[in-house]
Amino acid sequence: MKTVFKGKRISGILGVLPEEIAYFDDEVNNYNFPSKQTLRLKKVMGFDKHRLAKTTSTASQFCVKGLNYLLDNNLIKKDEICAIVVVTLSPDYFVPHISNIIHGECELDQNILCMDVSQGCCGFLIGLIQSFMLLNTFGNDKKVLLFNTDVLSHKVSKSDRNEFPLIGDATTITVIENDIESKREIYTNIKTNGKDRNALIVPAGGFAIPSTASTAKMKEVENGNFRSLDNLAMNGADIFNFVLSNVPSLIETALRECEIKKEQIDYYLFHQPNKFMLEKLADELQIPYERMFMNIVENFGNPSGASIPINIVFNMRENAKREEKLCCLSAFGSGLTWGIIIMQIGNMDFCELIESNL
Protein backbone atom coordinates (compact mmCIF):
# COMPACT_ATOMS: atom_id res chain seq x y z
CA MET A 1 0.00 0.00 0.00
CA LYS A 2 1.67 3.16 -1.22
CA THR A 3 0.36 6.55 -0.07
CA VAL A 4 1.60 10.14 0.06
CA PHE A 5 0.47 12.45 2.88
CA LYS A 6 0.93 16.20 3.28
CA GLY A 7 0.64 18.64 6.17
CA LYS A 8 1.47 16.23 9.01
CA ARG A 9 4.27 16.19 11.57
CA ILE A 10 5.53 14.41 14.67
CA SER A 11 5.52 17.04 17.42
CA GLY A 12 6.81 14.92 20.28
CA ILE A 13 7.98 11.47 21.39
CA LEU A 14 8.18 10.04 24.90
CA GLY A 15 9.89 6.73 25.61
CA VAL A 16 8.99 4.77 28.76
CA LEU A 17 11.38 1.99 29.81
CA PRO A 18 11.32 -0.55 32.63
CA GLU A 19 13.96 0.13 35.26
CA GLU A 20 15.25 -3.45 35.29
CA ILE A 21 18.36 -3.96 33.18
CA ALA A 22 19.44 -7.53 32.41
CA TYR A 23 22.95 -8.13 31.08
CA PHE A 24 23.82 -10.66 28.40
CA ASP A 25 26.96 -11.77 30.28
CA ASP A 26 24.84 -12.69 33.32
CA GLU A 27 22.45 -14.81 31.25
CA VAL A 28 24.85 -17.07 29.35
CA ASN A 29 24.32 -19.93 31.83
CA ASN A 30 20.58 -19.91 31.08
CA TYR A 31 21.28 -21.63 27.79
CA ASN A 32 22.24 -25.21 26.98
CA PHE A 33 25.42 -24.10 25.21
CA PRO A 34 29.05 -23.61 26.27
CA SER A 35 29.51 -20.09 27.64
CA LYS A 36 32.34 -19.26 25.26
CA GLN A 37 30.18 -20.22 22.29
CA THR A 38 27.31 -18.05 23.51
CA LEU A 39 29.56 -15.06 24.23
CA ARG A 40 30.68 -15.02 20.58
CA LEU A 41 27.20 -13.74 19.74
CA LYS A 42 27.74 -10.59 21.81
CA LYS A 43 29.90 -8.75 19.30
CA VAL A 44 28.32 -10.13 16.13
CA MET A 45 24.69 -9.56 17.10
CA GLY A 46 25.24 -6.47 19.24
CA PHE A 47 23.98 -8.03 22.48
CA ASP A 48 24.85 -6.37 25.79
CA LYS A 49 21.84 -5.49 27.92
CA HIS A 50 18.08 -5.31 27.62
CA ARG A 51 15.12 -3.89 29.55
CA LEU A 52 12.65 -6.30 31.14
CA ALA A 53 9.27 -5.49 32.64
CA LYS A 54 8.21 -7.20 35.84
CA THR A 55 6.19 -10.36 35.26
CA THR A 56 3.22 -8.65 36.96
CA SER A 57 3.36 -5.54 34.75
CA THR A 58 1.15 -4.96 31.74
CA ALA A 59 1.54 -2.87 28.62
CA SER A 60 -1.34 -0.59 29.61
CA GLN A 61 0.43 0.37 32.85
CA PHE A 62 3.41 1.73 30.92
CA CYS A 63 1.05 3.62 28.60
CA VAL A 64 -0.85 5.21 31.50
CA LYS A 65 2.43 6.08 33.22
CA GLY A 66 3.64 7.83 30.06
CA LEU A 67 0.45 9.75 29.33
CA ASN A 68 0.17 10.94 32.92
CA TYR A 69 3.76 12.18 32.66
CA LEU A 70 2.86 14.18 29.54
CA LEU A 71 -0.27 15.60 31.17
CA ASP A 72 1.42 16.44 34.47
CA ASN A 73 4.25 18.26 32.69
CA ASN A 74 1.90 20.16 30.33
CA LEU A 75 3.42 18.49 27.27
CA ILE A 76 -0.07 17.59 26.05
CA LYS A 77 -3.53 18.80 27.08
CA LYS A 78 -6.56 16.55 27.29
CA ASP A 79 -8.68 18.79 25.06
CA GLU A 80 -6.08 18.55 22.27
CA ILE A 81 -6.45 14.78 21.91
CA CYS A 82 -8.80 13.49 19.21
CA ALA A 83 -7.71 9.86 19.05
CA ILE A 84 -5.64 7.19 20.79
CA VAL A 85 -4.04 4.53 18.61
CA VAL A 86 -2.35 1.64 20.42
CA VAL A 87 -0.16 -0.73 18.44
CA THR A 88 0.81 -3.84 20.38
CA LEU A 89 1.30 -7.60 20.45
CA SER A 90 0.86 -7.58 24.25
CA PRO A 91 -2.82 -6.97 25.07
CA ASP A 92 -3.76 -6.95 28.74
CA TYR A 93 -6.94 -8.84 27.79
CA PHE A 94 -8.77 -9.92 24.67
CA VAL A 95 -11.36 -7.34 25.82
CA PRO A 96 -11.18 -4.48 26.86
CA HIS A 97 -8.56 -2.94 24.60
CA ILE A 98 -5.52 -1.11 25.91
CA SER A 99 -6.69 2.16 24.32
CA ASN A 100 -9.91 1.95 26.35
CA ILE A 101 -7.95 1.20 29.53
CA ILE A 102 -5.80 4.29 28.92
CA HIS A 103 -8.94 6.33 28.25
CA GLY A 104 -10.56 5.28 31.51
CA GLU A 105 -7.50 5.49 33.74
CA CYS A 106 -6.62 8.99 32.46
CA GLU A 107 -10.24 10.21 32.52
CA LEU A 108 -10.34 11.40 28.92
CA ASP A 109 -13.24 12.94 27.00
CA GLN A 110 -15.91 10.63 25.59
CA ASN A 111 -15.44 12.07 22.09
CA ILE A 112 -11.91 10.65 21.81
CA LEU A 113 -11.63 7.76 19.37
CA CYS A 114 -9.84 4.70 20.77
CA MET A 115 -8.45 1.83 18.71
CA ASP A 116 -5.96 -1.00 19.11
CA VAL A 117 -3.95 -2.39 16.20
CA SER A 118 -2.30 -5.80 16.47
CA GLN A 119 1.10 -5.36 14.81
CA GLY A 120 4.69 -6.04 15.74
CA CYS A 121 7.89 -4.95 14.01
CA CYS A 122 6.18 -2.59 11.53
CA GLY A 123 3.90 -1.22 14.23
CA PHE A 124 5.33 2.29 14.27
CA LEU A 125 4.98 2.75 10.50
CA ILE A 126 1.46 1.33 10.44
CA GLY A 127 0.54 3.42 13.48
CA LEU A 128 1.82 6.58 11.81
CA ILE A 129 -0.17 5.87 8.66
CA GLN A 130 -3.32 5.27 10.73
CA SER A 131 -2.69 8.51 12.63
CA PHE A 132 -2.17 10.50 9.42
CA MET A 133 -5.50 9.19 8.07
CA LEU A 134 -7.32 10.09 11.30
CA LEU A 135 -5.94 13.63 11.16
CA ASN A 136 -7.47 14.00 7.71
CA THR A 137 -10.84 13.57 9.44
CA PHE A 138 -10.49 15.59 12.65
CA GLY A 139 -10.00 19.33 13.07
CA ASN A 140 -6.72 21.06 12.38
CA ASP A 141 -6.04 21.81 16.05
CA LYS A 142 -6.36 18.19 17.22
CA LYS A 143 -3.64 15.62 17.93
CA VAL A 144 -3.42 11.84 17.71
CA LEU A 145 -1.52 9.93 20.38
CA LEU A 146 0.23 6.85 18.99
CA PHE A 147 1.25 4.29 21.60
CA ASN A 148 3.69 1.55 20.61
CA THR A 149 3.89 -0.80 23.56
CA ASP A 150 5.02 -4.36 24.25
CA VAL A 151 6.07 -6.55 27.15
CA LEU A 152 7.09 -9.44 24.92
CA SER A 153 9.64 -10.71 27.45
CA HIS A 154 6.60 -12.36 29.08
CA LYS A 155 6.26 -14.51 25.96
CA VAL A 156 9.90 -15.50 25.44
CA SER A 157 11.59 -18.51 26.99
CA LYS A 158 14.59 -17.61 29.14
CA SER A 159 16.20 -20.84 27.91
CA ASP A 160 15.94 -19.87 24.25
CA ARG A 161 19.23 -18.37 23.11
CA ASN A 162 17.71 -17.42 19.74
CA GLU A 163 15.06 -15.12 21.21
CA PHE A 164 15.66 -14.11 24.83
CA PRO A 165 18.92 -12.15 24.51
CA LEU A 166 17.46 -9.79 21.92
CA ILE A 167 14.00 -9.12 23.34
CA GLY A 168 13.37 -5.86 25.19
CA ASP A 169 10.28 -4.23 26.70
CA ALA A 170 9.44 -0.61 25.90
CA THR A 171 6.59 1.82 25.35
CA THR A 172 6.58 5.01 23.31
CA ILE A 173 4.01 7.77 22.92
CA THR A 174 4.24 9.74 19.69
CA VAL A 175 2.20 12.91 19.18
CA ILE A 176 1.11 13.46 15.59
CA GLU A 177 -0.62 16.63 14.45
CA ASN A 178 -1.56 18.63 11.39
CA ASP A 179 0.99 21.04 9.96
CA ILE A 180 -1.15 22.98 7.53
CA GLU A 181 1.51 25.42 6.40
CA SER A 182 3.85 22.62 5.36
CA LYS A 183 3.53 21.40 1.78
CA ARG A 184 6.17 18.71 2.19
CA GLU A 185 5.18 15.21 1.24
CA ILE A 186 5.42 12.13 3.47
CA TYR A 187 5.99 9.02 1.37
CA THR A 188 4.71 5.73 2.81
CA ASN A 189 4.69 2.17 1.52
CA ILE A 190 3.80 -1.03 3.40
CA LYS A 191 4.04 -4.53 1.92
CA THR A 192 2.89 -7.92 3.23
CA ASN A 193 3.68 -11.57 2.57
CA GLY A 194 1.20 -13.58 4.62
CA LYS A 195 2.27 -16.88 3.08
CA ASP A 196 5.41 -16.85 5.26
CA ARG A 197 3.63 -15.60 8.37
CA ASN A 198 4.71 -18.54 10.55
CA ALA A 199 8.36 -17.49 10.43
CA LEU A 200 7.53 -15.46 13.56
CA ILE A 201 4.81 -16.95 15.74
CA VAL A 202 3.49 -17.59 19.23
CA PRO A 203 1.74 -20.91 18.49
CA ALA A 204 -0.58 -21.12 21.51
CA GLY A 205 -2.71 -18.65 23.42
CA GLY A 206 -5.28 -17.62 20.84
CA PHE A 207 -8.49 -19.35 19.82
CA ALA A 208 -6.74 -21.65 17.33
CA ILE A 209 -4.65 -23.29 20.10
CA PRO A 210 -5.76 -22.16 23.57
CA SER A 211 -3.15 -22.17 26.33
CA THR A 212 -3.25 -25.29 28.48
CA ALA A 213 -0.92 -27.14 30.83
CA SER A 214 0.27 -29.06 27.79
CA THR A 215 1.14 -25.96 25.73
CA ALA A 216 3.11 -24.58 28.69
CA LYS A 217 5.50 -27.57 28.84
CA MET A 218 9.08 -26.69 27.96
CA LYS A 219 10.70 -28.83 25.28
CA GLU A 220 14.00 -28.81 23.45
CA VAL A 221 13.06 -27.55 20.01
CA GLU A 222 16.34 -27.29 18.10
CA ASN A 223 20.03 -26.62 18.66
CA GLY A 224 19.73 -26.85 22.43
CA ASN A 225 17.01 -24.20 22.78
CA PHE A 226 14.06 -24.82 25.08
CA ARG A 227 10.62 -23.25 24.77
CA SER A 228 6.92 -24.09 24.96
CA LEU A 229 4.08 -23.53 22.53
CA ASP A 230 3.18 -20.47 24.62
CA ASN A 231 6.53 -18.86 23.77
CA LEU A 232 7.60 -16.73 20.83
CA ALA A 233 9.33 -18.73 18.10
CA MET A 234 11.28 -17.25 15.21
CA ASN A 235 12.93 -18.86 12.21
CA GLY A 236 15.95 -16.57 12.17
CA ALA A 237 17.31 -17.75 8.84
CA ASP A 238 13.99 -17.24 7.08
CA ILE A 239 13.58 -13.75 8.57
CA PHE A 240 17.12 -12.79 7.62
CA ASN A 241 16.67 -13.96 4.01
CA PHE A 242 13.29 -12.23 3.81
CA VAL A 243 14.74 -8.90 4.98
CA LEU A 244 17.79 -8.98 2.69
CA SER A 245 15.65 -10.06 -0.28
CA ASN A 246 12.95 -7.41 0.09
CA VAL A 247 13.97 -4.35 2.11
CA PRO A 248 16.83 -2.96 -0.04
CA SER A 249 14.72 -3.00 -3.21
CA LEU A 250 11.82 -1.29 -1.42
CA ILE A 251 14.11 1.50 -0.23
CA GLU A 252 15.79 1.90 -3.62
CA THR A 253 12.38 2.16 -5.29
CA ALA A 254 11.07 4.66 -2.74
CA LEU A 255 14.07 6.96 -3.10
CA ARG A 256 13.81 6.82 -6.86
CA GLU A 257 10.08 7.63 -6.82
CA CYS A 258 10.70 10.53 -4.41
CA GLU A 259 13.60 11.73 -6.55
CA ILE A 260 15.86 11.67 -3.50
CA LYS A 261 19.46 10.52 -3.56
CA LYS A 262 20.77 8.29 -0.79
CA GLU A 263 23.18 10.94 0.41
CA GLN A 264 20.29 13.42 0.84
CA ILE A 265 18.86 11.27 3.64
CA ASP A 266 20.31 12.48 6.93
CA TYR A 267 19.45 9.35 8.91
CA TYR A 268 18.18 5.87 8.12
CA LEU A 269 16.06 5.01 11.17
CA PHE A 270 15.47 1.28 10.92
CA HIS A 271 13.78 -1.27 13.14
CA GLN A 272 16.59 -2.94 15.09
CA PRO A 273 16.39 -6.74 15.41
CA ASN A 274 20.16 -7.07 15.74
CA LYS A 275 23.38 -5.33 14.69
CA PHE A 276 24.39 -8.04 12.22
CA MET A 277 21.26 -7.60 10.10
CA LEU A 278 21.57 -3.80 10.11
CA GLU A 279 25.18 -3.98 8.95
CA LYS A 280 24.17 -6.28 6.10
CA LEU A 281 21.40 -3.88 5.08
CA ALA A 282 23.74 -0.89 5.21
CA ASP A 283 26.31 -2.76 3.10
CA GLU A 284 23.70 -3.82 0.57
CA LEU A 285 22.37 -0.27 0.28
CA GLN A 286 25.86 1.29 0.42
CA ILE A 287 24.84 3.49 3.34
CA PRO A 288 27.55 4.77 5.72
CA TYR A 289 27.18 3.20 9.16
CA GLU A 290 27.15 6.63 10.80
CA ARG A 291 23.85 7.40 9.05
CA MET A 292 22.20 4.23 10.35
CA PHE A 293 22.10 3.97 14.14
CA MET A 294 22.74 0.39 15.30
CA ASN A 295 22.86 0.77 19.08
CA ILE A 296 19.31 0.02 20.24
CA VAL A 297 19.60 -3.75 20.74
CA GLU A 298 22.85 -3.42 22.71
CA ASN A 299 21.28 -0.85 25.07
CA PHE A 300 17.63 -1.88 25.30
CA GLY A 301 17.05 -5.08 23.35
CA ASN A 302 14.64 -5.27 20.41
CA PRO A 303 11.50 -3.41 21.54
CA SER A 304 9.28 -4.58 18.65
CA GLY A 305 7.10 -1.76 17.27
CA ALA A 306 8.68 0.77 19.64
CA SER A 307 12.11 0.21 18.07
CA ILE A 308 12.10 3.22 15.72
CA PRO A 309 10.72 5.82 18.17
CA ILE A 310 13.16 4.59 20.85
CA ASN A 311 15.86 4.97 18.19
CA ILE A 312 14.79 8.58 17.61
CA VAL A 313 14.62 9.48 21.30
CA PHE A 314 17.91 7.79 22.20
CA ASN A 315 19.97 9.01 19.26
CA MET A 316 18.37 12.28 18.17
CA ARG A 317 16.85 13.85 21.27
CA GLU A 318 19.66 16.40 21.71
CA ASN A 319 18.87 17.98 18.36
CA ALA A 320 15.28 16.90 17.77
CA LYS A 321 13.84 20.06 19.33
CA ARG A 322 16.15 22.43 17.43
CA GLU A 323 16.33 21.20 13.85
CA GLU A 324 14.82 18.88 11.28
CA LYS A 325 16.44 15.96 9.51
CA LEU A 326 15.25 14.14 6.42
CA CYS A 327 14.83 10.55 7.57
CA CYS A 328 14.11 7.19 5.99
CA LEU A 329 12.16 5.00 8.41
CA SER A 330 12.01 1.28 7.65
CA ALA A 331 10.73 -1.74 9.55
CA PHE A 332 10.41 -5.43 8.79
CA GLY A 333 9.33 -8.60 10.54
CA SER A 334 6.17 -10.24 11.88
CA GLY A 335 3.47 -10.77 9.33
CA LEU A 336 5.63 -10.98 7.32
CA THR A 337 5.48 -7.24 6.77
CA TRP A 338 7.96 -4.62 5.62
CA GLY A 339 7.65 -0.93 4.93
CA ILE A 340 9.14 2.53 4.57
CA ILE A 341 8.29 6.14 5.43
CA ILE A 342 10.33 9.10 4.21
CA MET A 343 9.68 12.27 6.19
CA GLN A 344 11.20 15.16 8.11
CA ILE A 345 11.87 14.43 11.80
CA GLY A 346 12.60 17.28 14.22
CA ASN A 347 11.53 20.68 15.56
CA MET A 348 9.63 18.76 18.22
CA ASP A 349 8.02 20.21 21.31
CA PHE A 350 9.58 17.39 23.36
CA CYS A 351 11.70 14.28 22.87
CA GLU A 352 12.29 12.48 26.15
CA LEU A 353 13.07 9.12 27.75
CA ILE A 354 11.89 8.14 31.22
CA GLU A 355 12.04 5.01 33.37
CA SER A 356 9.33 3.27 35.35
CA ASN A 357 9.55 0.76 38.21
CA LEU A 358 6.84 -1.36 36.56
Topology of helices and strands:
Blueprint lengths: L1 E5 L1 E11 L2 E3 H4 L7 H11 L3 E3 L7 H14 L8 E8 L9 H8 L7 E6 L4 H13 L7 E8 L19 E9 L6 E8 L7 E2 L17 E4 L2 E3 L5 E2 L1 H23 L8 E4 L4 H11 L10 H5 L6 H14 L3 E10 L3 E10 L3 E7 L2
Parallel strand pairs: 2-17, 5-6, 5-7, 14-15
Antiparallel strand pairs: 1-9, 2-8, 3-4, 7-8, 9-16, 10-13, 11-12, 15-16
Helix pairs in contact: 3-4, 6-7
CATH homologous superfamily - what is it?
Thiolase/Chalcone synthase
Number of domains: 1
Task: Report the C-alpha radius of gyration, rounded.
Answer: 20 Å
- How would you sum up the major sheet? 6 strands, mixed
Helicity level: 25-40%
Structural class, by secondary structure, is alpha/beta
What is the rounded distance between the termini?
A: 37 Å
CATH domain topology: Peroxisomal Thiolase, Chain A, domain 1
CATH top level? Alpha Beta
- Tally of extended strands? 17
What ranges have pLDDT less than 50 throughout 5 or more consecutive residues? none
